[in-house]
Amino acid sequence: MNSVLVASNRGPVSFTLSEDGVLTMRRGGGGLVSGLADVAGEIDLLWVCAALSDGDRSAVRLAPGGRLDQAGYDTGALRMLDIPPAVFHRAYNAVANSTLWFVNHMLYNTPQVPHFDIRFRREWGSYRDYNAAFALALAEEAGPGARVLVQDYHLTLTPSMLRGERPDVRIAHFSHTPWAPPEYFSLLPEDVGAEVLSGILGADHAGFLTERWASAFMDCCEAVLGARVDRAARTVTHEGRTTRIGVHALGVDGDKLWARACEPDVESHMAALRERIGDAKLVVRIDRTELSKNIVRGLAAYREFLATHPEWHGRVVHLAFAYPSRHDLPEYREYTAAVQRSAQEIEDEYATEDWDPLILNVQDDYPRSLAAYRLADVLLVNPIRDGMNLVAKEGPVLSPRSALVLSREAGAAAELGRDALLVNPYDVSGTAEAIHQALIMPEKERIERGERLRAAATALPPTAWFAEQLAALTS
Ligand code: G6P
């Protein structure tokens, strides 16, 4: 039994099984994993996650009770849940990623989707089963009075389910995405929306990345559940229980990130990139190819910038990293193809014998993207809507003299908005002009803004963010 438990769909490691039956473990990235690695030695921690691949499932079957503590994994103890693949697929792809994620990001193309029919009801049933599997495992593993930190939109029902099983434990839920206002949230069937909200309200503490998402959540609780909301005290009372609402603006660990970005593999990518682009200015973007990242409009903005500012031809290169994501969903495959088409159009229109205006990278390559950050003159982060966007926070740490063009709809804009060039993500012309302004920003101004951006980006590194979650359950 453990006294601190973390639950998330994706765990800190993944396993692959080779043809000759050898299991290999790979540690994932992300703020939560690196934050926990720093504190794992000090707390009695268990991480509960889902087995996502055949390799993960093999690892679970080899481990008694799915506990992978002995598997060479060093960030506390780990338990992977082997959820039947069909249930997992409906819960993860159909409900979490195609429904709740779309609602939170307000991304539906409403004339065609969503479509809440009998099939959705089956998928919703699987989402419940998947959440129940987490609640059950947490109930089994939590020591008396343990603190349990449940992560994200995959696990909105787990807090109330766990509360039903184990009234003694203290539960926090954290949303890493935006939250939609009630007018949009209520496109979910009424009972489904109510179940999501009361599921999260099973927690003692519900955390969000910004004030804006926290207050949208409170508005939904009031409008959909008729819950009593005290905005000054930041509490929601529903069915006799009170949940505290917190804002914890996750940032980056500047020293750690900088140290990683100074390693030889990054330096050699820097040398290769420098050689390829010569002394041209560099506009960089780094995203997973998620529908919310607005990569196609970002490329359109770069194209319009080239059209309206021919003086830059031959003197600027756009380096765009667009890593494939969620290719099980057709919308994502189509989006990746659209990004590639847009890039090709720019090449066709502007490339010359000795100038490549755009380099698109669709292979996941962490050291190469760190090298790009370090060389950037401009970092473009223009999501339609984003919980936080850590790229906007990593940039100022790694390239103190680059200018940041940032969507006003990214959570990070709340902290970085004063020193970034803020854009409306739908306004392609406005974004094109911001790219130009960023390129011509005087050196002194870039450095001054960069210093303030860096301070804001590193204000709450993952370890401190995690400590805040735990502290919220102690009081
Ligand atoms: C997006 C969301 C995060 C979420 C993540 C999961 O980035 O904004 O809140 O945790 O996706 O990604 P995955 O690859 O595990 O589906």
Structural key phrases:
Glyco_trans_20; alpha,alpha-trehalose-phosphate synthase (UDP-forming) activity; trehalose-phosphatase activity; 17 strands; 475 residues; Rossmann fold; alpha/beta; 2 domains
What is the name of the CATH class of the largest domain? Alpha Beta
* Strand order in the largest sheet: 5-4-1-6-7-8-11-10-9
User: Cα distance, first to last residue?
Assistant: 22 Å
Shape: globular
Q: Helical percent range?
A: 40-55%
Determine the strand fraction and express it as a percent band: 15-25%
Number of strands: 17
Average the pLDDT over all residues and give the rounded result: 94
Unreliable runs: none
CATH architecture type of the largest domain: 3-Layer(aba) Sandwich
Oligomer state equals: single chain
What are the distinct ligands in this entry? 6-O-phosphono-alpha-D-glucopyranose
Protein structure class: alpha/beta
> With helices defined by DSSP (H or I, 4 residues minimum), what is the helix count?
18
CATH topology category name of the largest domain: Rossmann fold
Radius of gyration: 23 Å
CATH superfamily of the largest domain: Glycogen Phosphorylase B
Largest sheet: 9 strands, mixed
- Structural domains: how many: 2
Pfam families: Glyco_transf_20
GO molecular function, one term: trehalose-phosphatase activity
Protein name: Trehalose 6-phosphate synthase
Family: Belongs to the glycosyltransferase 20 family.
